Amino acid sequence: MKRILLNQKLPYSFHLHAKDASTNKVSVGYVVVVLICMLFSGTGWGQVVQTYSYTGSNQTFVVPTGVTSIDVKIWGAGGAAGYYGSTSGGSGAFLKGTLAVTPGQTLTIVVGGGGTYSGSVVSNGGFGGGGNSGGSYGGSGGGFSGIFAGSVSQTNALAIAGGGGGGGAYSQTYGGAGGATSASNGGNYSTSYTGGNGGTVSAGGIGGQYNGSSNVRNGNAGAALQGGAGNSSSTYNYRGGGGGGGFYGGGGGYSSGSTTYYSSGGGGGASYISSSLASTTNIIGTTNTSGNATQAPGNSEIGYVAGIGNGGKGSGTDVTTAPGGNGLVLITYTITSPYVNTTNVTSFSNVCVNTVSGPNSTTLTGGNLTGNITLTAPTGYTLSTTSGGTYSSSLVLTPSSGNISQVVYVKFNPILAQSYN
User: Fold this and answer.
1) pLDDT given for residue 258 in this prediction
2) Which of 162, 193, 237, 359 is the most exposed place for a label (fewest CB within 10 A)?
């Protein structure tokens, strides 16, 4: 965050005229100029866009002074492809809306990591709750991206875009798409079996099933903010894809033996929209049954970067099988220009040199302020915030929640019979 020092000369004026030097008296109309210096935080006034890219750890956003709503765009991460053929990872979801916030509030930002593919070993799930693959030849799930009011938990969730599921091994075992209130299921080769189910806003997706609900080959169920892992039974060396992360994660895929090859893809993770988010767009991701990279939704939005949220492309070799694309979070808000106004000071009467006149007063008001205000009086004048208080050549005023309304008292003590303008 940059900090910019702005010196503003405001028309805080009182004009002084000498009346008669022989009588050592001066008459006062108004004082000339008081210099007001304000320290503003931020990059200036107007619209500000903050981009949160994948880092592998939680990030934070502190709501600036005067900001009560932010526009958000969120892409969940894509799942990785599995081994060989039409095993593309599912894409992450996309959502956007206007989020009600409080100045000074600290939000936690999670940017999901794309699912990974590691060949004959376990592929770790993407940051943000992506589920691991079961092991050899399965892709892992992509992580969710989201905004939280404090620590990362379902209770604190304000907005979440679900991650895509990882692909399984061999044809039609693509990963499910993340997003919406119910994510899509992972693919599987035979209609007799099931891929990992997509998560919903109320429950994790069940794991992919191989010939029955209690089979040792079945994938693991998704859970709160976590995709289920693909089946890792050591008996079967074609392991299931991992479920995508989400408000509730997708289920992991089942695994299969060397004679049948096929495992299943993981389900996508569910998106979530809290009551604090208005004017929303909530789009489920996409799946690809032909082995190509899976394009994430929201790709025509301003700020989208090619590859974000895409599901990985399937391939016939370990070397070229693609990971999923990382997620992205964009926050846009408007900083309103600060302002300060003053009322005219009541004119002083004729004043003898070395005689104190006053106090007279002015009222200073302001808004959208992000720092203290320093008032510096011209020569011959002193200032105070109370009529009977201590007077000095300068005052420091502290706004409350960006606003201020303060009576400032002014005393005049000319030392020479001259014009004070």
Assistant:
1) 60
2) 237
